[in-house]
Amino acid sequence: xxxxxxxxxxxxxxxxxxxxxxxxxxxxxxxxxxxxxxxxxxxxxxxxxxxxxxxxxxxxxxxxxxxxxxxxxxxxxxxxxxxxxxxxxxxxxxxxxxxxxxxxxxxxxxxxxxxxxxxxxxxxxxxxxxxxxxxxxxxxxxxxxxxxxxxxxxxxxxxxxxxxxxxxxxxxxxx
Length: 175
Fold this sequence. Notes:
Layout: H1 12-18, H2 22-37, H3 41-54, H4 59-72, H5 75-88, H6 93-105, H7 109-122, H8 127-139, H9 143-156, H10 160-174
Helix pairs in contact: 2-3, 3-4, 4-5, 4-6, 5-6, 6-7, 6-8, 7-8, 8-9, 8-10, 9-10
C-alpha cells in the first residue's frame, strides 16, 4: 500500500471540533500533528489521547489517532478508532480508506473492498480508494478488476509514490 494520508493539520475547524480552548488546542493538536508527521507515533497517540479525553465526540481526533495506531501496526486499536471516526462522521472517506489498509494487512479482502467502495461513493476521485480496492481484488485473484482499479488510481493520482506502487502492482498482476 502507498503511504497513508497524513493526519489532519491543526486548523480552526480542528480546534473547534476537538472542543478545547485555543491554548490547549494549539498545544495538544500541534504536538500530536508534529509527532505524527515526524514518525513518532507513540508520542502522537499520547497527545491524541488528551484531545479525545477532552472531547470523545471528535471524529478528527479519532481518525488521527487511528492513523497513528495504523502506522504502529496496532491494528485492533486503529480499527476501533477509525470505526469510531466513521460512526461520528460517516462522510470521512479517508477513514474508510485507512481502515481498508488494516483489512488488507489482515487478509480481510472483502471488508477492504467494501470500505473502498464506500470511500469511492463519498469521493469518486480518491485515488487511494481505487488503489486499495485494486489490491483487494488482486489478492482475491480478480485480476481484471484489480487492473481496472489500479489504472484508475494512476489516472487520478498526482502522488509519485502511489503511481509507482500501482504500476509495479499491475506489472505483477499482468506478469
